[in-house]
Amino acid sequence: xxxxxxxLGSDVHMIDTAMSGYSGITAAYVILGSRPCLVETGxxxxxxxxxxxxxxxxxxxxxxxxxxxxxIHLDHAGGVGDLAAAFPRARVVxxxxxxxxxxxxxxxxxSARRVFGPAMDALFGELLPTDAxxxxxxxxxxxxxxxxxxxxxxxxxxxxxRHHLGLVDTATGDLYVGDAAGxxxxxxxxxxxxxxxxxxxxxxxxxxxxxxDFDLDxxxxxxxxxxxxxxxxxxxxxxxxxxxxxxxLGRAAQEMRLWVSIVRAARTDQGGQFDLDHxxxxxxxxxxxxxxxxxxxxxVAAKFxxxxxxxxxxxxIARWLENEDKRxxxxxxxx
Length: 335
Known about the structure:
- This is MBL fold metallo-hydrolase.
- By secondary structure, this protein is of the alpha/beta class.
- 39% of the residues lie in helices and 20% in strands.
- It has a single domain (6-252), classed as Metallo-beta-lactamase, Chain A.
- The protein has helices at 47-56, 74-77, 80-86, 99-103, 106-116, 120-123, 216-228, 245-269, 276-287, 292-295, 298-307, 310-334; strands at 6-9, 12-16, 27-31, 37-39, 66-68, 91-95, 135-138, 141-147, 150-156, 165-169, 174-178, 183-185, 204-206, 233-236, 240-242.
- The strands form 3 sheets. It has a 7-stranded mixed β-sheet.
- A hairpin with a 3-residue loop joins strand 14 and strand 15.
- It is globular and about 60 Å long.
- It starts with 5 loop residues before the first strand and ends with a helix.
């Protein structure tokens, strides 16, 4: 049975989308009011869970005004087609680079099937197309009307994905970070409103650096942009709220830099070549003590590994490093 939505205050409710049957791994958020808005859909296989949660909050088929996704990865936007059909009056909002893939998901789905193979259907399901006439796009900046003078301000924040948006609620200062700040894993005793444990512990943060779009420089610029927005709270799609904004953004940058440095060292060990198994082993070895609290919770570590595997993150970093090498080589050649 799906968990009940958590009331985070100011008409904001967090919905556990129960990805792959797990709790506490992927969140959607609904902002109630005169123009209810859903932020993130979860996977296609989660669409029914989200529909039921919205119904429990009094949001009927004709009530939802907007569906917004931070980016088009299938754990965030896989349910768009199903939910657009279930809520026929809702506009769908996405960063403009990703809009065509919601209208025609065939290339996105083919790519995902190559990556995930037989596990694809169980993990994500099928992203159904959305009528292009219902899709609104955000470029570098844009806004979503939440009614009664309240808005979501959207900001293009690439680095994790070229089609990524950060979203700020003008009424609360909440910042929906998507995956631009990586994954946040609350401590066991975290409260629903702060994300902190009873002792004030913040929990664990992990980088999300998958191919093909990861770019360290862009990712760090996006984190700096988040900081400049001066949010009051971060709402992670993976997973939940945290009030320690500056600490969390600082740690997100630190984790990215650390993993990049380890993968770079792994390439050096192999004479500049990339060996995935060697790089993954180095990351695990050099972060074992750092992530000891998480590794002491093997069931939690396992579900987040399924969502965002070490191998996928290492592959994304390796691809970026290879592209950086090419750029430097071309620049030196031109010089």
